[in-house]
Amino acid sequence: MEYILNPWPWYISGPLITLIMVILILFGKNFGMSSNLRTLCTIGGADKYADFFKIDWKSYSWNLVVVLGAIIGGFIATQFLSNGAPIDLSVETIKDLNTLGFSNAGENLLPPEIYSWDAILSVKGMSVIIIGGFLVGFGARYAGGCTSGHAISGLSNLQLPSLIAVIGFFIGGLVMTHFILPLIF
Amino acid sequence: MKFLKFLAVGILFGIILVKSEAVSWYRIFEMFKFQSFHMYGIIGSAVVLGVVSIYLIKKLKLKSINGNQIHIPSKNKSFVNYLLGGIIFGLGWALAGACPGPMYILLGTGVFSMLIVIASATLGTFVYGLLKNKLPH
Q1: What is the mean pLDDT of residues A156-181?
Q2: Which key words tag this protein in UniProt (chain B) (predicted)?
Q3: Which of A33, A106, A132, B46 could form a disulfide with A14 if both were Cys (CB 3.0 to 4.6 A apart)?
């Protein structure tokens, strides 16, 4: 039981993510989470504004069920399968985060400096998550996929476009982490 | 009933991503700082095993559970959209610390402010749809 309650090492988690992809392939589907955002747009009536959203959303509803499951899975994992152990971040990471003004790094999954209600109800905090979310949604569709669709599924299928997208993910991520975050925090 | 299996896959996915800490903003920060092997180990092992799995699925000509031939679609051959879209995605990933799977999972862990991230990501996707024909691909 202790093995389950403690955080799982990469060599357990990585192969299990592969298993998710393989199960979905054997179900005749594919592993890609960001396409759900497009489906949500279509359900919300976006097909009246752009052809891009003229899709039969019902044929993607299986993926929304995966999303529903993922929400439940997040609940189960934190409520029943965790012992509250802090995230074992590297010493340098904790030091760098301290310099940026993030205290108690790793005590929760997310930094209260961004995601607590106090932070969100400030102009800066609200802007950070709105802009962050917007870039993720816009970029994922522009690139035709996200971490699951490109970094896992696409690379596993040896797709050159996915490699280009993943290189893009890293360019953007490195610029944000090394140059922009220090300007914001 | 046919949706039950997808619900189960989703639940498993959510549990794995929480237990792996891949849903953590801190782990994403650490990854982009190259200060830990953890995230590289997760993605790297998933991809290596994924390459072998897909090779075998194709080689053995496996059928899906509905009895259809498995077809894994190839990505369109283009360049600019993958690179530019990727960069935009990466900026958002490192800022919000959550990509489109973890957003929902984190909501389930009780972080209700994630709803704002999900709403803005949906808006981002909508704006892409509006601008699609004007953007270089």
Answers
A1: 98
A2: Membrane, Transmembrane, Transmembrane helix
A3: B46
Q: A-B interface: how many C-beta pairs under 8 angstroms?
A: 494
With respect to residue A132, please indicate whether it lies within any of the assigned structural domains: no
Residue type at position B94: A
CB contact B53 to A (< 8 Å): yes
Residues 6+ apart with CB under 8 A from A51: none
Taking the C-alpha atoms of residue A6 and residue A53, their distance in angstroms, rounded to an integer, is 42
Structure tokens at B87: 């960069």
- Is A168 within 8 Å of B41 when comparing Cβ atoms? no
Which among B14, B91, B118 has CB closest to A72? B14
* Helix axes of A160-175 and B25-32: crossing angle, nearest 10 degrees: 100
Q: Which domain holds residue A20?
A: 1-82
A-contacting residues in B 87-106 (Cβ below 8 Å): 87-101, 103-106
Tell me whether residue A153 is in a domain: no
- Where in chain B are the domains? 1-73, 75-136
Of A136-140, B3-7, B63-67, give the lowest mean pLDDT range. Answer: B63-67
Q: Domain count of chain A?
A: 1
pLDDT-based confidence at residue A1 (cuts at 50, 70, 90): confident
Token look-up 């988690």 returns A13
For the residues B36-53, what does the mean pLDDT come to? 98
Whether A119 is covered by a domain: the verdict is no
pTM passes above 0.95: yes
* Amino acid, single-letter form, for residue A47: D
Mutate to test the interface with A, among B116, B128, B132 (most CBs of A within 10 A): B128
